[in-house]
């Protein structure tokens, strides 16, 4: 047998079958198949991004619409073509050394920070008033973590483009201005040429701020069809998050481009984490499962962990994967493992993650009652962005826990300016006022809380107790009486009114009010609360008889 051509038909057929078997083994090997599919869909995604980039910028040398260049750059970066992009724009800068726009746009494309700043400085010297150049400078400040400086630089810029609105949104986001961030994103999305990436970042903001559940929020993907979502896997993942759809169910029906996109899988895992808070362990010991908790067996968490394992095959070195894995280690009540992940992130060189990692490290330690260890990390996070409302709140909460009421009050008051609708901030502020015996200020803040949360019995009860501290018994009772005018079957209200009378030394009146409510209100709610107060009254009677 000198060659294949001399083989018999059975031999040739056998070799063909063997080749098919080998190919099938490669394709269906769990490891090899996953890797092949990952690269296939990554290549598909990159090809779509490159095609879109070619459509956005048909003539590279044309600087008449600089925003087309910015859009083109973002598409090329997402396609993994940063090297090609840098070469293109360094050539552009070389050919146009006196063109401020060419230099500024080139600064966005190069990787070397020193070269970036040199090109941008040259552009600013040539055209200090050119608004696109100024906006690129603002973006550079954002990348360097100089958020307050960036915010101040928007003054005097008249242009109203998606780029300006998007940069404003990012700046205000980092500074904790939730309402203003929302407005800026909406302004950006109203522009006809707004890129898809802005929609995705807007969705990320809504999810991180727990705004998916809020009514009347803008729609980040208005006008998108199913093809848009399949071609933008991260957008698909955020849509699932925003919809409130079960992550476990969504994971079973993910389109292949999404199923093989690590970023999308991480987003879905984060959604499951956010929706399923970790219950506290009985004493915060390392590795101890929370008593009676079902977190470890929660189908959403199990699905998320599977998604993280799949993403980790190809993205285990990415900061987002690292921080998310740290969160799940926290959920598993393994704070030391979580700290290893967060520390790895801090050492990764990703500057824009430093603040987030420090904040999460602090939260990890705090969850396990390691207050002294947590404080330095919160201080580092807050120190990098001292005007961030969320970090001001967190540092204020920690100072409150340390009984450092003066400092806590300063930070919580400032945080409430950035987060005027955040109930956790306002409640902590009430605690700080009470600790300092500033009852009038506590009253005003508690009233703000009730205005924003009129149906919350805890908020109503707290305000009533503050009126009692001021010896304003009738005003305390009036809080519940006014609520009964609109909701006459509120059993909790009757129970609280009775407790106020008991506290005021009139248990007989309290009993009369409760028994009248039980008799006259057949649709009365929360009757068990009323029964509990009546039992307290009976016990008081018995104790009084025993003393005679």
Walkthrough of the structure:
By secondary structure, this protein is an all-alpha fold. Among the domains are: 104 residues, Serine Threonine Protein Phosphatase 5, Tetratricopeptide repeat (Alpha Horseshoe), CATH 1.25.40; 95 residues, Serine Threonine Protein Phosphatase 5, Tetratricopeptide repeat (Alpha Horseshoe).
Question: What labels describe this entry?
Answer:
single chain, Serine Threonine Protein Phosphatase 5, Tetratricopeptide repeat, elongated, mainly alpha, 548 residues
Brief sketch in words of this structure:
By secondary structure, this protein is mainly α. Helices cover 72% and strands 0% of the residues.
Q: Termini, distance in Å?
A: 119 Å
Give me the CATH fold name of the domain at 41-144: Serine Threonine Protein Phosphatase 5, Tetratricopeptide repeat
**Number of H- or I-type helical stretches:** 30
The arrangement of helices and strands along the chain is: HHHHHHHHHHHHHHHHHHHHHHHHHHHHHH
Please render the helix and strand layout as text.
Blueprint lengths: L8 H20 L1 H27 L9 H13 L3 H14 L4 H10 L3 H14 L4 H13 L3 H6 L9 H14 L2 H12 L6 H13 L17 H6 L1 H11 L3 H6 L3 H4 L2 H14 L23 H17 L3 H13 L3 H12 L7 H14 L3 H14 L4 H13 L3 H14 L4 H13 L3 H14 L4 H13 L3 H14 L4 H13 L3 H14 L6 H21 L1
Helix pairs in contact: 2-3, 3-5, 4-5, 5-6, 5-7, 6-7, 7-9, 9-10, 10-11, 11-13, 13-16, 16-17, 16-18, 17-18, 18-19, 19-20, 20-21, 21-22, 22-23, 22-24, 23-24, 24-25, 25-26, 26-27, 27-28, 28-29, 28-30, 29-30
């Amino acid at each position: 047998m000198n060659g294949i051509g001399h083989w018999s038909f059975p031999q040739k057929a056998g070799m063909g079958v063997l080749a098919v078997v080998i190919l099938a083994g490669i394709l269906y090997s769990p490891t090899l198949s996953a890797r092949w599919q990952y690269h296939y869909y990554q290549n598909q995604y990159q090809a779509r991004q490159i095609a879109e980039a070619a459509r956005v910028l048909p003539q590279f040398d044309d600087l008449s619409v600089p925003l087309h260049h910015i859009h083109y750059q973002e598409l090329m970066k997402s396609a993994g073509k940063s090297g090609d992009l840098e070469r293109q724009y360094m050539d552009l800068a070389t050919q146009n050394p006196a063109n401020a726009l060419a230099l500024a746009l080139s600064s966005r494309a190069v990787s070397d920070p020193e070269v970036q700043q040199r090109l941008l400085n040259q552009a600013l010297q040539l055209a200090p008033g050119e608004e696109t150049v100024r906006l690129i400078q603002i973006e550079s400040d954002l990348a360097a973590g100089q958020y307050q400086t960036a915010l101040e630089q928007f003054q005097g810029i008249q242009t109203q483009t998606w780029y300006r609105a998007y940069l404003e949104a990012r700046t205000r986001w980092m500074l904790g201005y939730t309402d203003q961030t929302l407005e800026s994103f909406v302004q950006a999305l109203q522009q006809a040429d707004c890129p898809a990436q802005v929609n995705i970042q807007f969705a990320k903001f809504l999810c991180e701020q727990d705004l998916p559940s809020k009514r009347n929020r803008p729609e980040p993907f208005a006008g998108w069809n199913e093809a848009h979502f399949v071609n933008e896997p991260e957008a698909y993942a955020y849509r699932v998050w925003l919809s409130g759809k079960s992550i476990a169910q969504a994971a079973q029906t993910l389109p292949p481009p999404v199923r093989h996109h690590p970023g999308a899988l991480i987003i879905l895992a984060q959604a499951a984490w956010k929706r399923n808070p970790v219950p506290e362990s009985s004493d915060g010991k390392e590795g101890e499962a929370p008593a009676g908790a079902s977190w470890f067996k929660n189908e959403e968490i199990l699905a998320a962990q599977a998604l993280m394992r799949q993403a980790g095959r190809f993205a285990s070195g990415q900061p987002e994967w690292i921080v998310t894995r740290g969160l799940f280690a926290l959920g598993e009540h393994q704070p030391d493992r979580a700290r290893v992940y967060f520390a790895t992130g801090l050492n990764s060189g990703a500057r824009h993650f430093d603040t987030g990692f420090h904040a999460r490290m602090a939260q990890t330690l705090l969850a396990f009652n390691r207050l002294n260890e947590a404080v330095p990390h919160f201080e580092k996070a807050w120190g990098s962005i001292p005007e961030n409302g969320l970090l001001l709140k967190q540092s204020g909460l920690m100072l409150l826990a340390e009984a450092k009421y003066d400092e806590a009050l300063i930070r919580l008051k400032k945080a409430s300016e950035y987060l005027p609708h955040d109930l956790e901030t306002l409640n902590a502020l009430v605690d700080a006022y009470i600790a300092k015996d500033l009852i009038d200020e506590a009253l005003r803040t508690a009233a703000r809380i009730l205005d924003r949360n009129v149906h919350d019995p805890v908020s109503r009860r707290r305000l009533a107790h503050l009126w009692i501290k001021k010896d304003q018994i009738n005003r305390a009772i009036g809080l519940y009486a006014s609520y009964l005018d609109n909701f006459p079957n509120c059993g909790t209200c009757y129970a609280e009114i009775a407790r106020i009378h008991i506290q005021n030394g009139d248990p007989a009146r309290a009993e009369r009010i409760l028994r009248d409510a039980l008799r006259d209100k057949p649709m009365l709610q929360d009757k068990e609360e009323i029964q509990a107060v009546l039992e307290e009254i009976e016990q008081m009677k018995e104790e009084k008889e025993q003393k005679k």
